[in-house]
Specification:
19 strands; alpha+beta; Phage tail protein beta-alpha-beta fold; 3-stranded mixed β-sheet; about 30% helix; 14-stranded mixed β-sheet; 9 helices; single chain; Jelly Rolls
Length: about 325
């Protein structure tokens, strides 16, 4: 996958640099993620080349700080390497590419957080939870990496959940219906407490703790579905599934910074852990993602949780700099 920008580099080093660029500047698809995991786990030299590339980028980031006349406070901090490394001659061939990219990495936040900050009224950072009191007395509890917009008018109260997970405790006001839009799903409160989780995949999980809500797919003529207290509902690929009984221990666990998994695939657990820690976690092969996991897990220390999971499943975790972790056999 070498490009013209890296034609003077050894092929393996060029591949490592290109992967690092994609990981730090693009929103990867599931196919991209799988391709990276397969490339990384194909040979130990691939992992070493990737670690060297990240070391180079961090060194160049420090150079940008030292040589900038008017330093800009970074929206994200690029960790300094634990010890200094003298670059070998061949590694300096990548300096022009690395220097330009690092200048961007120093001053720009992650794409998802930048989007949330620009287009939402309120958002939480990775690992942050936040309680908000709205003007009408309603309360919102925002989970990690969540973004919402609030539109209150004389005849309605409208919340847009752009990403993430939130609980809504709705103050009564019959003259102004309270609705939440998440993706292509509209949720109308019927005097209630409920929570909505809009996943990165676009799937939506809804659970009702008090009273009921009415759900309606936007721009569809399908009938609305009412979800009663103690019920949950999933929305995936344009289809509203039939409401089922809520597992309260599972549904409310995130409010205590915990995860409860009952015979669910490792890939889903990894996706949840990623919401609470910066960087990426990769699985070396799709079969690992299919391993089943059951347990009650604390999210107080996501890296410690990751270590616990790898030990339970007999896996290994290779840390590639401060950002990436590869789980493998």
């Amino acid at each position: 996958m070498a490009s013209d920008a890296n034609t003077d580099l050894p092929p393996l080093q060029a591949q490592a640099i290109e992967w690092l660029i994609r990981l730090r500047t693009l929103e990867l698809t599931d196919t991209d993620t799988q391709a990276f995991a397969e490339w990384l786990s194909a040979d130990v030299e691939h992992a070493q080349a990737f670690a060297n590339a990240e070391d180079l980028f961090e060194t160049m980031a420090q150079a940008v700080h030292l040589n900038t006349a008017q330093p800009t406070t970074p929206a994200i901090s690029i960790p300094k390497p634990a010890r200094s490394h003298q670059l070998k001659p061949k590694r300096w061939l990548a300096v022009p590419l690395a220097l330009g990219l690092c200048a961007l990495l120093v001053v720009l936040p992650k794409p998802a957080n930048l989007w949330a900050a620009m287009f939402s009224d309120f958002h939480t950072e990775i690992g942050e939870q936040r309680t908000m009191q709205l003007a009408d007395g309603s309360q919102l509890l925002l989970n990690t990496d969540t973004a919402v917009s609030v539109d209150y008018q004389n005849t309605r109260r409208h919340i847009i959940l752009h990403q993430g997970q939130a609980q809504f405790i709705v103050a009564s006001d019959p003259a102004r219906p309270f609705t939440v839009s998440a993706g292509t799903l509209d949720i109308r409160a019927l005097g209630t407490v409920f929570e909505v989780y809009l996943k990165a995949s676009g799937d939506i999980d809804l659970a009702v703790q008090e009273h009921a809500v009415s759900t309606q797919i936007q721009a569809h003529n399908t009938p609305s579905v009412v979800v009663q207290q103690g019920q949950q509902l999933s929305y995936s690929n344009g289809i509203l599934k039939t409401p089922t009984r809520t597992d309260e221990q599972v549904t409310g666990a995130w409010q205590q910074r915990r995860l409860v998994f009952r015979d669910r695939p490792l890939a889903e657990l990894v996706a949840e852990i990623e919401r609470y820690r910066p960087g990426r976690i990769f699985l070396a092969g799709s079969n690992l993602g299919k391993l089943r996991v059951t347990g009650l897990f604390s999210l107080a220390d996501p890296d410690a949780l990751l270590g616990k999971i790898t030990a339970i499943l007999g896996l290994k975790a290779t840390h590639l700099g401060p950002w990436c972790v590869l789980l493998h056999r």
